[in-house]
Amino acid sequence: MKNISLLAALVLFAACKEESKTREPITVNYPTTKKVDTVDNYFGTEVPDPYRWLEDDRSEETEAWVKKQNTVTFGYLEKIPFREDLKNRLEKLWNYEKVGSPFKEGDYTYYYKNNGLQNQYVVYRKKDNGEEEVFLDPNTFSEDGTTSLMGLSFTKDGSKAAYLISEGGSDWRKGIVMDTETMEIVEDTLVDIKFSGISWKGNEGFYYSSYDKPEGSELSAKTDQHKLYYHKLGTPQSEDKIIFGGTPEEKHRYVGGSVSEDQKYLFITASISTSGNKLFMMDLSKENPELVTILDDTDSDTYPIENEGSKLYLVTDRDAPNKKVVTVDASNPTPDNWKDLIPETENVLTAGTGGGYFFAEYMVDAISKVLQYDYDGNLIREVKLPGVGSAGGFGGKKEDKEFYFSFTNYNTPGSLYKYDVETGEYEQYWKPQIDFNPDDYESKQVFYNSKDGTKVPMIITYKKGTELNGKNPTILYGYGGFNVSLTPSFSIVNAVWMEQGGVYAVPNLRGGGEYGKKWHDAGTKLQKQNVFDDFIAAAEYLIDNKYTSKEYLAIRGGSNGGLLVGATMTQRPDLMQVALPAVGVMDMLRYHTFTAGAGWAYDYGTSEDNEEMFNYIKAYSPVHNVKEGTTYPATLVTTGDHDDRVVPAHSFKFAAELQEKQAGDQPTLIRIETNAGHGAGTPVSKTIEQYADIFGFTFYNMGYDELPNQAVLKEFKD
């Protein structure tokens, strides 16, 4: 056990303060974490795993460890003098009405809305010029708000709806069917649905996907054979028919099914990893439809977005790393018959349909550009967006004459616009009334060179008039994986950070999808180090250009971004003052043995692939690169005890390694949210508390005894 206290004599640079000040240290007495003699052998190399026992999420011993760690962590956080101020400001800023894009189902228009501080969004509806009424209120699903609505699907005529719920943030879902007119439950409850939507076939039933419940812990045991089922209303779930995935030949880790808007076809995707899929179809107009292969390899990401009779429209990156739209007839749908409709460009395409048109959204250096095409591939117009940022929601049903899109950027809260598909004109439908003035802030896109000379874009957002003196508290946020693109969007928590004079910087690292498949692949497997190098170079850019300095820099990321933070802080612990890894993939030698982790192998490879891959992964795996006698930044690891995507054992092991080996005085704590998962569906109340702790920990360990802009909080408090 180590007894570690913060150094008392820290030089403070808080606003309105000119002289240094000594503060009382916060003493941290870490719980003892026992070690076991578990050793794995990889290609002749023995690798100890002393904290293997923490992988057992059902053991009383692990539960006791979690409680002890939380006692220490919350004991520390409670002593931060401005923690409550941050919580109050987050709560006040969060407390404004939020509305999702309306959508038409049957005779009703539905929309999600939150009156401000509700733990979960409520689904409302109304008829034309009718009264608004509550359709589904997830806040009534559980007393503490931890049961969330995670999917809602309507029949084509809107008469029935099926919705999915998650309990405690788990990826395992339950399904419930309603009659939309009476709002009475028709069927309650389907269980064990996972990584799935619901797609209706007429009014008689629907398709969904799941795994067999694993032996052992349902939160951590491996699941790798996904199956597509058909559920017929009025029959027990035990009689649901397996449509695809039930045989050894059809074994895939991810299987999905979707019915075309005209109800003619069932399309089935099958993947062994998070990138690349096979594609099949069934003609539902036939009595006993056969499975027809469209694509029998996983060398591309290909999916249908529309059909007109037997003419199929597919989006694909096959022979087109930035994606394109192709057409093919269902009678002979294999790739050699595909014809380009919207060809590949130098920018990455995301395609949607609505009102009888295609909408092609392109990322131009991570900024949205939207073009409208007809079904023959003719360009109708470029949609002139409200500003520079991210647009979303361009799409709807074929008969829609108008639909709604959203627009946001890092300093502009998201607004909704009603779009006329024929004229291309739009008007603002809804604008948030938020206690935040976007005009006081600015975003700047810069390009910097990574270690190997690759040019990487980064958007830096901060209050206008910020002096570049190296003393600005800065959060560098990244992800860098799984073809995920980080495009500009507003965040309440980041607004609170920037109110306090904070800088928020987001680089578009390799491994993401901002520049297509080549950019993604450049951050995978034996090129994963590129992602960490890009992130390190972003930090160096911010320091070199006086946005911040080592003493005022925090790095943050979640999931794959948690891995990013863990790898960066172990490779360059000298670079930052604070590290904030959330729900991270930290044990890279064993990640593929938990839940659906093996499906991430496209990005990571696995330690079992070959000796070269093992050595490469071990060289950056955060758990295996915490070194005795090294001074690491102040670290707050965050995770949820019900995270069944990136199991919390990753974070448990990493925190244990840091607590044992930290040579400096900086705290290394772990905050474990109970009855919470990977993040989706987390109640607003828990989110506010979590970020008050994260920002409080960050500011305090940058040397602040009061917030940099305490006057702002006083102004809003008064």
Automatic annotation (TrEMBL):
Residues 31-429 form the Peptidase S9A N-terminal domain. Its EC number is 3.4.21.26. It is an enzyme of class 3 (hydrolase). The keyword Hydrolase applies. It catalyses: Hydrolysis of Pro-|-Xaa >> Ala-|-Xaa in oligopeptides. It holds the Pfam family Peptidase_S9. Residues 488-701 form the Peptidase S9 prolyl oligopeptidase catalytic domain. The keyword Ribosomal protein does not apply. Keywords: Hydrolase, Protease, Serine protease. PANTHER family: PROLYL ENDOPEPTIDASE. Belongs to the peptidase S9A family. This is prolyl oligopeptidase.
